[in-house]
Design a protein that fits this description.
The chain is of the alpha+beta class. The chain folds into three domains: about 15-160, Sandwich (Jelly Rolls); about 185-300, Immunoglobulins (Immunoglobulin-like, Sandwich); about 355-555, Vaccinia Virus protein VP39 (Rossmann fold). It has nine helices and 29 strands. A seven-stranded mixed β-sheet has the order 24-23-22-25-26-29-28, sandwiched between helices. The chain has a five-stranded antiparallel β-sheet with strand order 9-10-12-16-15, with no helix packed on it. A hairpin with a 5-residue loop joins strand 28 and strand 29. Helix 4 (about 375-390) crosses helix 5. The protein starts with 14 loop residues before the first helix and ends in a 7-residue tail after the last strand. The structure holds zinc ion (ZN).
Length: about 575
Amino acid sequence: MQLPSLTAPVVGGDEIEHALRELRAQAHHVPRPLPLLFRLRPGVDLRTVTFDAYPLDPDEPNLHCIALIPFLPQAQATGTLGIEIVSPDRQIVRQLRVALDGVISYRPVRFDFPPIPDSARRGFELRVFARDASEPIHVLAYHPLLPFLPRRVLAPRVLCSFDFARDVAPSAAAAVSDDARARTVDGGAAPLFAVDFPSGTDVEVASGVLSVRGWAYSKRHGPGRLVLELSGPSGGASRRIPVAHRYCRFDVSQVIPSIPAVNYAGFEVSVDRFDLPRQAEATLMFEALDERHRLAAFQVRAAHTDPVEAPELVRCDCCGGDDTDAWGNKDGLTVVQCRVCGLAFTSPRPDFGRIGQRYSQEYFLNEYLPSMRADHEAHRARWNYYLDQVERFKALNPRLFEVGTGAGYLLKEAVRRGWTASGIDVNPAAATYARDTLGLEVTCHNIDSADLALPEGAFGAVLLESTLEHFLSPRRVIAASARALQPGGGLFIWTIANDGDVVMREGMAMMLVGPSEHLYYFSATALCRLCEDNGLRVERMWRDDSGDGIGVVASKRLDRVEG
Ligand SMILES: [Zn+2]
C-alpha cells in the first residue's frame, strides 16, 4: 500500500500550541470524541488489532481530509497508524495508514483521500487504529474538553492511546489465559481467516458467565457470520450460539481496492454458566454460504453447583406498573420499557451473584482502575464539573456523601474543594483503595446494608454519579439519599438516558447497554418522578451532547412553616 507522505515541518515555539494551530488551520474536520462509547476494552485478545471509533458528523459534503496529532513517547517506533471512515450503512469507504517511523511527535498527520460526496449524511464513523506498533502511541485531538461542556471550552487532550507493549492481565470471566497472537487458521501463505483468540486453552467457568471476546478478519468479501458451537464430550448434540459482531460485520459486499482486509469484526458472546454443558468442546466457526471455517477451539468446564432460581420478573421501580414493551436483548438478558413512565430496565433480572461479579476485586483492579488512570485529567475535569453543580449547597452544610465512590477520585476532588466528604462503595477493593490509598472516609456498604446508619438530614449534598443504573431499586437509593440530606440540601445524579442519539441509533449494540451490569436506563419523566416522590424538587435536568448521559440536581424541600 502507498503510504501518504508527511509534510508541514514544525517551526519553533510551543510544540503543542503550534500543532494545534496548524491542525485547526489544516483539518477539514476534527472528530468529536465520546470517550466512554465504543471503546474496545484492552485485553490480550485485542492486542494486535485495535481501534477507537468516534461519531463523525462533518455536516458538509466532500469530506477529504482528517488530521490527527500523534505523540510517541519513544523515538524510532515501528508499525502503522491509520484511520478508517465507515459510512452510515456500515461500509468501510476509506482506509489510510502511515508508517510510524516517519511520524514526528506533535506534528499533525494529514490523511488526504478522495472526497466522500455524501459525507453530510449523519452516521459516519471515524476509526483510529494502530498495527504492530513497537512503542505506545497517543493521538491528541483539539476538541471540546468534554461532550457536555460548552463547545467553546477547548483543550488538547489524548483522543486515544495504543500500547501494544503493555502487559494486560486477563480477566477471570474472559476465556483468555495465554499470550495469544493472531493465528492463521486456514489458507497458508495467503490467510483466508485469522482470529486473535487463544486456541487449545482450558476454560473453567466457576461463576458468572463465559465471555468470549476477540477479533477476526478475512481477505474475502461477502456475507458470513460467526457462531460459537458447544458440544458435549461424547460428541452429543451441539448448541449453536450466534456471536454478536460488536464493532463491524462480516457482510462487506463491495470490493474496495485500497482495503486489504475488508471483512473484519470485533466479536463478543456471553453464555451463562448454567446454560453451558458441565464439560464441552467450544468451537468458534465462521460460516459463509458455501463454506465453514474453524477459527478457534477450547475446552470449557462449567460449575453448576448453585441452585437455579426461576428468573424474577420485575415491576417498574418508578411507577410500580407492569405494562411494558420489549426494548431488546443482549447477553442473554431482556430490557423492557415501562409504557407509563418510560423507565427501561432489565427484566427478568439476573441472579445477584451474576450482578455481583462486576464488583469483584479483579474487575476493580483490571478494568476500572486502568480506565480511570488512562485519562485522568479528562476525568478530573468531569468530576469538577459535577462538583460545580452542587457547590452552592456547601454554604448550607459542607458535609457531602457519595453513594458508589469507586476508587474515590470524585470524593478526593470534593475534599480538595473544601467539602467534608465521605461515602460508601459495594466493592471491597474499591472501598479499601479509597481509604488506604487516597485517605478517604469510605466504607464498604450497600445503600441497603442493615448496619449502615446514615444520619438523617446530615448532609449538604449527596452524589449519585454513574451509580443509579447499577442498583436493584433506584427508588430506594433516592429515598435513602433524600433522608440523609438536610432540608435545602442538594442531590446530584448523573446516569444513562434511554433516548439519547447513540442509543437510538445503535439500540442494544450501544456500549453502555449491558443489562447484567446496568439494570436501568432512565427517561426524564422517571427521573423527575423518582425525585419528586421523595421530597425533592428538581431544579435542573440536562444532557450531554449526544443526549445519552442525563444529569439532575434536586434539592430537598424545606418543611412547611406551621400556622
Ligand atoms: Zn413506570
